[in-house]
Design goal:
By secondary structure, this protein is mainly α. Helices cover about 35% and strands about 5% of the residues. This is Aspartyl/glutamyl-tRNA(Asn/Gln) amidotransferase subunit C.
């Protein structure tokens, strides 16, 4: 498979990019070089390689959930810029 200038123009149009002729040629060359490099992967023997979702094992590093007492409301409201009826008052985001 090869990338043509028409392909680059099409993708640039989808991305709402305006490219000059020099940029179109440059991107065509670069994308073809990338495809050529990726085609080297077809040379690898992957017959005995199991499919994986991630190349390294993942472990959950989160702590265990434990209940604990909350801060008293008076202490929380000390840091609030404004307070109303025991709640933190924030600017309205909806009209």
């Amino acid at each position: 498979m090869s990338i043509t200038i028409k392909n680059v123009e099409h993708v640039a149009n989808l991305a709402r990019l305006e490219l000059n002729e020099e940029e179109k040629s440059k991107f065509t060359e670069q994308l073809n070089a990338i495809l050529k490099y990726v085609e080297k992967l077809n040379e690898l023997d992957t017959d005995n390689v199991e499919p994986t979702s991630h190349p390294v094992p993942l472990f959950n590093v989160m702590r265990e959930d434990k209940t604990r007492p909350s801060l008293p409301i008076e202490k929380v409201l000390l840091n609030a810029p404004e307070e109303e009826d025991g709640h933190i008052k924030v600017p309205a985001v909806l009209e």
